[in-house]
Design a protein that fits this description.
The complex is a heterodimer of chains A (about 110) and B (about 120). Chain A is an all-beta fold. Chain A has no helices and 11 strands. The chains are: A mainly beta (about 110), B mainly beta (about 120).
């Protein structure tokens, strides 16, 4: 198995631009998580999908952030408009069954907003 | 609130010596506890978990963790450290999502482990 796949690996954009991050979970996993990692705030859960349905989006910072999971093999995290404070590493993770099971993380997308 | 705390930002140990990375938890009910490792420019990797049973849990790369209910701790240990163990280590706890029947993980701030040759 290729593991969790994220693209792009690096993204540099200017403030105000739209950014779309992509994730392909491990085949057969029914839970998907988006995290953000910064030095100041550590690892934060943004949103959790189960069977393609958002279960908990309380970690999404504000309306500029949105996430979708149109099918079991693809999810996107969109930031519009982007701001410099959104600069972080964004991780996608998947698992077979929510919080009781080990999560498999992708390599992350390093986002820099100038 | 259900949470974990990692009291040390950094742990330094010489190669060949035993290592301990500390984690304490605060949960209601029985805790589900996890350890993950993150190497530079990589995603987190699962090391081990405790759900129930034996208080000493063995995991990947020779790591183990000891669940201590009275001290509410779940410290990560390894008998003999390797330079290649140098990485960022995260403790995590399962957290229920209210009124949903689902749960997620809450992670600690992480502890940087530096193993010197």
């Amino acid at each position: 198995d290729a593991g969790v796949i994220q693209s792009p690996r690096h993204e540099v954009t200017e403030m105000g631009q739209e950014v779309t991050l992509r994730c392909k979970p491990i085949s057969g996993h029914n839970s998907l998580f988006w995290y953000r990692q910064t030095m100041m705030r550590g690892l934060e859960l943004l949103i959790y999908f189960n069977n393609n349905v958002p279960i908990d989006d309380s970690g999404m910072p504000e309306d500029r952030f949105s996430a979708k999971m149109p099918n079991a093999s693809f999810s996107t995290l969109k930031i519009q408009p982007s701001e410099p404070r959104d600069s972080a590493v964004y991780f996608c993770a998947s698992t077979q069954g929510g919080g009781s099971y080990e999560q498999y993380f992708g390599p992350g997308t390093r986002l820099t907003v100038t | 609130a259900q949470s974990v705390a990692q009291p040390e930002d950094q742990v330094n140990v010489a190669e060949g010596n035993p290592l301990t990375v500390k984690c304490t938890y605060s949960v209601s009910g029985n805790p589900y506890l996890f350890w993950y490792v993150q190497y530079p420019n990589r995603g987190l990797q699962f090391l081990l978990k405790y759900i129930t049973g034996d208080n000493l849990v063995k995991g990947s790369y020779g790591f183990e963790a000891e669940f201590n209910k009275s001290q509410t701790s779940f410290h990560l240990k390894k008998p003999s450290a390797l330079v290649s163990d140098s990485a960022l280590y995260f403790c995590a706890v399962r957290v229920p999502i209210l009124n949903s029947g689902y749960s997620t993980l809450t992670f600690g701030k992480g502890t940087m482990l530096l193993v010197s040759p």
